[in-house]
Structure formats: structure tokens, C-alpha cells
Amino acid sequence: MVTLEDTGQFRASLSGASTQPVKIIDFRQIDNSKKEALQKGYFVGTETRIESLRLWINIFNFHKDNIAKPPEILDDDFESVKAQKVLESWEAYPLLAVELLERDSDSQAWEVVGEIKIQNRKFSYYVDGLVPHLTSDEVLLVGSDYQLGARLKDMGHGLLSGSDSISIRGSWSQKLTGTPSTQGIVDLVQRQAIG
Fold first, then answer.
1. What is the pLDDT along the chain (195 residues), one digit of tens a residue?
2. Burial class (CB in 10 A: 0-12, 13-18, 19+), 109
3. What CA–CA distance (Å, rounded) separates 40 from 183?
């Protein structure tokens, strides 16, 4: 048995007042040269994962006169109190959302699989650990036709303007496991007989 591993990164950007989906990654378009080489003589199993996903929020023009302030959470607040304070903070200031989308082909409609609410905080910030929005596991196993996308959602306060942008970044890994096929075994025996 032969095992090969490959990794890669992806990124996309959302900006302006468009709510049109943006394709972040299409696994049909990743480099499959290792898989193709391994298929010459092996049955190949593929395990592809999205390992990480994060947003880089860079918005300063979105409701710049009404900047979101963080909730005042105290060390001795119960979890339910903390959650209530965060909810009240979301409701008190203008916000918009990034919807995470997925599909398995260009002919399918995008399916919303997650929503991340964001606000203007008057500084750039990350929103990390977004893979759990896509799955209940730490990583997301995907098929070879899987596509991940995103779009802006107006939450009643408008969309981005000016130089405001949201970058989406992530990483993937792929493990290829090759088991010799009948032809692969014949080729190996012939090479050993000649050599």
C-alpha cells in the first residue's frame, strides 16, 4: 500500500453591495497530478478535508457613526448571562452576515450551511474556527466535486461600501491511499523478472 499526502490553501474576498455567491474553493480544480500518477497501477482511495476556515473582517465604512461596542462580560457571570449580553450587543448595533454555502456541482443551487454575523468594530479582526459551522467535527470531509462558497446577507442595515472587505481564508489536506491493482502487480513482477 502507498500513501501520499497533499495540502493547500484557499482564499476569496467579499466586498461591495453584492449578495451574489462567491466561490471560495472548487475541489474539481485542485492539482490532481499525484492522484493521476498513483492511479497508474493502483486503486486509489481519496480523503479530502477542509482543515481550517477563518474570516478577516476589514470594515470601517459600514455604519461608521454607530460602532459596535463589546459587551461587558464579568468573570463571575453565568454562561447564560454571558450569552444574553452578547445577544443584546448584536441587537444594539448594525450588523450584516456572511453566509457559508456549499454544493456538489455548478448545476445545483447553493445551500446555506452557516451564518456568521459581523459588525463594524472600528478595527480589523479575525473570526476563527468556522469549520464547525459546516460540520459537527473538527474537520470537514468533502468529496471530489465539493464546492464551498460565501455571500453577504443584508440584516436590515445594508451591505459593505467603499474599501470595506471580508477575506475568507482556509486550508485543505488530501490523503491518497493506493492499493496495487492487478495490472500494478503484473507490472511489478515483470520489472523484477527483467531486473
1. 888 898 999 999 999 989 999 999 999 888 778 788 778 888 888 899 999 999 999 999 888 888 888 888 999 999 999 889 888 887 888 889 999 999 999 999 999 999 999 988 888 999 988 888 788 778 889 988 999 999 999 999 999 989 999 999 999 999 988 888 766 556 666 666 665
2. exposed
3. 9
